[in-house]
Structure formats: structure tokens, C-alpha cells
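Notes from the pairing session

We agreed to fold both candidates in a single pass and log them together. This is the raw record for the first candidate, unedited. Please don't reformat it; downstream parsing expects exactly this layout.

Candidate A
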Amino acid sequence: MAHFRVSSAVLPIAALVLTAGLFAHVAHAADSFLEPQGPIAAVQKTHLVRATLLILIAVVPVLCLVPLIAIRYRRRKQSQSAYAPNWDFSARLEFLMWGVPVVIVAVLSFYLWKATHRLDPYANSFGEAPAINVQVVGLDWKWLFIYPDHGIATVGEFGIPVGQQVAITLTTDTVMQSFMIPALAGQIYAMPGMTTQLHLVANTPKTMQGENTQYNGRGFTKQKFLTQAMQLQDFDAWVNSVRANGIPLTTETYKTLAMRTDRDEVQAALGTATMPLNALYFTLDDGDLFHSILRRYHSGQPLSVAQQPGTVSYGQESGQ
């Protein structure tokens, strides 16, 4: 019985230590919103911590009372516990058991409502400088970043200036995908023929990882990119570097990008000696490439096989 008593007493402490350890592990993991690099991720972190603490108001008493009740009412001789075989109701206990969770749910609902409006991906309430427009196209298995105002595009590298709003418009030219840069903002889905939006801003110069969180085949694990947050002068220099070292993003080049190839395969197909080993640079040949991609899905007729990415006619699977 002594062993049982010690084990029961440490259960609440162990649970709290485990929770704290989990938070510490996630917070120190690379590219986590628990280590925010922008105001949106910072609000998300605050919302999670607040919700966790509120939920613990209900969880901690349960963790504490279960072993205490098991010890107090265990079968033993000369027990001092009250014997009440006909007991079936306690107004005070019912009030605590139902009242506290109701209050917690009400408070959580209020904060959830506030956070939902505060973190609206379409809202541009973060940052005061004019936004930089970036158009993002999801492909198999890479992300294409188009900077229409700068005349450049990239794959594998997403450059943004520090402290300036970035207005992202997203679509895909393949299956549905989910765009996410955890250290800056939450994930948002993109679908072919449709657009969605996401606003974000970085506080400090930092290299962060972005990814697709929607499973989409063999190249899913490689559909990642580096987000480079830079000071404005460094961002301007980066834009000039992309422009100087990029190749024209022609119809044929885009057709190669649209093939079902992962980042390494497309790098081998289109990369040059002047480009980084993990990124592709382009200059824009079509001034309205993003909307030309969208218009293919709005002709009123189903796409023919020759127009569908991933097919032999449009861009076959690598290795076929």
C-alpha cells in the first residue's frame, strides 16, 4: 500500500512536468510559432498559452483528486471515511463539476472569437508600410513565388523585408495544398482555379522554414522552402541578385516546373551555377503569369488532358 500511495501522489506532478516539458521542447524546436518571429505568430502563441492555462483549471483538480479519492476510499480495516450507501446528490458538488467547465468554455469562446478576428488571414492590420505583393502557386512538389511588382520569381526561397507587410495571394496548379510558415503565420489552404490570401510580417532578420502541410504524394516531404526575412536594403540587394542570376520564366520553363518533380529534381533540371544550390531564380516573361494560371480553370469547360499538370501531355512524372 505504501508503494501505491507514493505513486498516486506523484501523478499530478508528473503530468504537470510532462506538459511543461512538451512546451519547452516545442518552443525550442526550429520554426515553431512558440518561438514567434512576427506579430501574428506571437498572438497565436499567446492564445495557445491562455487556452492551456484555462483548461488546466479543470484538469489539475482531476489529476489531484483521482489519486486522493482512490487512497481515501480504498478498502481497509477501520476506515475513517464516511459510509453513505444511500448518497446520490450534492448540490455543491454538481455546481462545481458543471459550473466551472461552463465558465471555462465561455471564457475560451470569448478569446477564440477575439483571436479569430485578430488573426484573419485576409486582414492587413499588421504593419503600416505599403504591402509587398507576392503571388504563390503550389505545384508538384514545390512552391513558386511570383513578385509581380519586381519582375522576378523564385522556387525554394521566399525573400521578405523586415517590418513590412507582405500580402500573399495563393492558388495551386495541381491538387489542394496547405501553405504554412509556422514562425510567422498559420496555415491556409489553396485550391486550383481559386485564390486565397494571407498577410504576414517579420519582426527581425531570420531564416525560417515554410512547407506544405497537406499530403500530396511522394514529394510531400521535400515541399519545403526557406523564408529569408531581411532588412530593406538587403531585400533590395536580394531582388537585384534574383534578377541578375535568374532565367526567363517562359511557357516552356513553367511547363518544366509544373512536372511532378520534387525540389532536387527540378533544381537539377533548371538550376545554374549562379543560383543557390537550394533555390531557383527567374525573371518574368509573362507579366500576368499568376492570372493566366487561374484563367485556365475558368473557361467554362473541363481542362483537357493536355492542359492538366502531371499528365504526359503537360508534364509527366519525373522518370517516366
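Candidate B (folded immediately after A)
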Amino acid sequence: MVGKLAQPGDIDGAERRRLLGRLTQALVRGGKKAGESGAGRGRWLADVFMAVAPRIPIRDAATLSEHHHGLTGELLADDLVRTAAKATMAVGAIGGAVAAAEFAAPPLLLSAPAQLVAETLVVAAIEVKLIAELHEVYGDVVPGSGTQRAIAFSVAWSKQRGVDPLAPGTVSLAIGAAAKTALRNRLMRTLGRHLTTLGPFLTGAVAGGALNRAATRRLGAAVRADLRKRRELPGPRNPG
């Protein structure tokens, strides 16, 4: 479900809402089974994301160009960031609209924490996908198996930077303790941002969508700055 939700151009709003609802229900069951709470919840969230990360679909440069009307270079990178920001904005807006409806029926707010976790996982997946595909566009392909690459891009996401090819263990099969902590902290910060979706009426939808969009744009700019240090691309640069 997370993998499908991370493909912004392939599903409409109704299908996105349905999948987000199904994901929330699955997380409720998984959370109860894990029996996690407090600080342990962050570890559980990181473990769930690392199980999901290798299943995030990553397109190569040729496929990306085909899917984005033949764009290449900086123009393709611009479009990737714009599309990802639109997708994370949609996730925040959907979650905020659901939360606004739930204010009319307080007992339903019991599901809100799981809904926020679902939004967090989807936004993280969209942004990890963005990082991975920007590397493809800039010709900075990260080697390794699907799992190894997923770890590298997830660690990069936790740092809000591009993958550092010189860092030890960049494509290690096992994610180290420090990297796990960084990933957990980033996920929890993203989860905290989604608390804005609990605003009444439509304030949550507006705030959640706007904050997600701005955060994804900042991430895209930071990753592209790192990648440009290693390779310049043809085409005009988008300053933000």
C-alpha cells in the first residue's frame, strides 16, 4: 500500500483516501501486536519503514524522462520535485480533511494516532523515492541490491541530504545504531508535523498540505545541491 501511495501520478484522490484508510487499519493491528508505546513507538515506526523501503518503486533516468514528457536534466529534476511536493501536499490535505470530519464524532479521534503514522510513512516513502530518482537524473547511481539502496536512500532522507558515496557503510546490508536513531528521529519529527492535521474544520487540511509541500521542496533543493557538486546537468536551474 505504501509503495502504491508513493506513486503520485498513478492514483486519484478517492483511491488515495481508500488506501490511506486501509493503511491506517493495518497499522492499528500492527501496533497492537507489537505492543509498543512511548519511546518504543519510534523504534517500531522506524522498523516498519525499513520493511517498507525496499518496496518503494524507483525509476531509472530513461523511464523518468518518458514519464515526464521527455524532460531531461535540470528540467526533469524540477518536475520531480514539483510532483513529489504535490503528492505530499495531497497526503497532508487528505489527512486534515479526515481529521476535520472526525471532530464531529469525537470517538473516531481514537484512530487519529494511527492515521498520523500512516501519513508519516507515506510522506517518508514519497520523499525517499524523490531522493532516489534525483540520483538517477543526476547520473549518481547508488550501487547495491534493492535492500542496500533502500537503506542508503533512507539514511540520506534522515539527514535531508544526498547519499554520500564516501561515507563508510553507504550500501551496508545492516543499518547501524546511529543511522537507526537518525531515521527514528526524522520519522518522529515528520509525525509531529502531521499533528497539524488535527485542527478543526479545514484548518488541518490547509496546514498539513502546506507544511508537507514546503518540507518536500526544501528536501529537493538540499539533495540537488549535493548532487550538483558531483555533476552539473544541462538546463536552467530552479532556485527553489
